[in-house]
Amino acid sequence: MQGDPMGGLISAIIWMVLFVGIFYFLILRPQQQQRKKHEEFLKNLKKGDKVITTGGIIGEIKNIEEKTISLKVCEGCIIKVLKPSIASYYQEEAASQEEKG
User: pLDDT (tens digit, 9 = 90+) per residue, 30-59?
Assistant: First the structure.
């Protein structure tokens, strides 16, 4: 006596749907939310903000263009980086605390 072949197919479909749902909620959705937060962060940048790039360069924003940002990294040294390479604001207090402890 054999079982219903449609039962196995339905079971496989249910597992696939569960797998896709778990994949979406554990991987894709958090990445989308993080990307939206970073885009909002980039929109709120203004001249004079101290920032750190993904490469670890610390600088003060001197000019903001459509796709690039000019950073003053030292006296008389201004570099141009792509907007998405700005990782976060630079807080000097937090950095000095990390160096001490």
Answer: 999 999 999 999 999 999 999 999 999 999
Q: Distance between CA 36 and CA 2 in Å, rounded?
A: 52
Angle, alpha carbons 31-24-36 (nearest 5°): 25
Identify residue 34 by its one-letter amino acid code.
Q
Give me the pLDDT at residue 1, please. Answer: 46
Dihedrals φ, ψ of 96, to 5°?
-70, -35
Residue 12 is encoded by which pair of tokens? 């496989």
Cα 86 to the chain's mean position, in Å?
10
pTM for the structure as a whole: 0.69
> DSSP letters of 21-84?
HHHIIIIIHHHHHHHHHHHHHHHT--TT-EEEETTS-EEEEEEE-SSEEEEEEETTEEEEEEGG
